[in-house]
Design a protein that fits this description.
With 323 residues, this protein is an alpha/beta fold. The chain contains twelve helices and eight strands.
């Protein structure tokens, strides 16, 4: 075994929540939440990716359970939240409000916010709205919702690296509609014809699932190809992306000055195809006080060895910081 592999930090052992439930956040939405770790520990919240993916039991393992009180929740329309795959009253700013509602419900003054991929976008939006409520920020696989980032993944860019997978992504869309693939997919993902919607959802979801890791992962591809997961992530992602994530272009980078006093870490895989390193570097320049960790030999996924190592080091480092 490579000596470097021995030194890499691993996730903490599996744990179960000590409390969980559903919260009515209005407009017909109920979101699933759970609390893990030490009830008297440092408050933290985990923001999952997608949008539309949901939390998993492995996300609990990113924090020392003896030192953290961690809240995880499934965002509107995904995971265990209801109604499943709903696009109604489902925007970035609804979820920012949900995070703040959860903070007040559990009587947290300030908390560490950890988010990866879309979760990094949401973490930045929340921190820029409520900087006084964020003790630290840990961000992985940076995505800010700029048009250039969307075009890279869904129009022309990543397709040059995965031409074989790209053909499968193009397959549900007629030639004449391929000049704007996000719009073409939106038409199908919101179709009243369930088979049309499901075919589009599988293709959309698999494109992400098969480009997210540096090396192929059969189990991840199977998850992304499953009907229930694919429909939620494809519908919600496409809904957000056709609406430019409900931001003005480059808004997140423009407003980075609002978080300049928050300690943070930016963790980015050098070979991330889903959210290329350029965006993380742009955030680093806009927020230079945050630690910038460019991980060689890693793609986009949170559980790739180098990414996981740096994430665990970051949560450990901040564990004893005053809130």
């Amino acid at each position: 075994m490579d000596r470097r592999e021995i030194l890499l930090r691993k996730a903490y052992p599996p744990i179960e929540p000590y409390n969980s439930g559903m919260l009515d956040v209005g407009n017909g939405h109920e979101i699933y939440w759970e609390l893990c770790g030490n009830p008297a520990g440092k408050p933290a919240i985990f923001l999952h990716g997608g949008p539309g993916a949901g939390c998993t039991e492995d996300h609990r393992r990113l924090f020392d359970p003896d030192r953290y009180r961690v809240l995880l929740f499934d965002q509107r329309g995904c995971g265990r939240s209801t109604p499943r795959a709903s696009l109604e009253s489902n925007t970035t700013w609804h979820i920012v409000d949900d995070i703040e509602t959860l903070r007040m419900k559990f009587e947290v003054d300030r908390w560490l916010v950890l988010g990866g991929s879309w979760g990094s976008t949401l973490a930045l939006a929340y921190a820029q709205t409520y900087p006084e409520r964020v003790s630290e920020l840990i961000l992985r696989g940076i995505f800010t919702g700029r048009r250039s980032e969307l075009l890279w993944l869904y129009q022309d860019g990543a397709s040059w690296l995965f031409p074989d997978k790209w053909q499968d992504f193009l397959a549900p869309i007629p030639e004449e509609e391929r000049g704007d693939l996000i719009t073409a997919y939106h038409k199908r993902l919101t179709s009243a014809d369930e088979e049309v919607a499901l075919t589009a959802a599988r293709a959309w979801s698999l494109w992400e699932g098969e480009t997210v890791r540096l090396m192929p992962d059969k189990k991840l591809s199977e998850l992304h190809g499953s009907d229930e997961f694919a429909l939620a992530i494809a519908r919600i992602e496409n809904h957000y992306f056709i609406n430019k994530c409900f931001f003005k272009d480059a808004q997140i980078l423009r407003d980075a000055y609002r978080i300049k006093s928050i300690p943070g870490a930016i963790i980015q895989g050098r070979y991330d195809v889903v959210t290329p390193a350029r965006t993380a570097f742009d955030l680093h320049r806009a927020w230079p006080d945050a630690e910038f960790l460019l991980v060689d030999g890693a793609g986009h996924a949170y559980n790739e060895p180098g990414i996981l190592h740096q994430t665990i080091l970051a949560t450990d480092r901040f564990a004893d910081e005053s809130t």
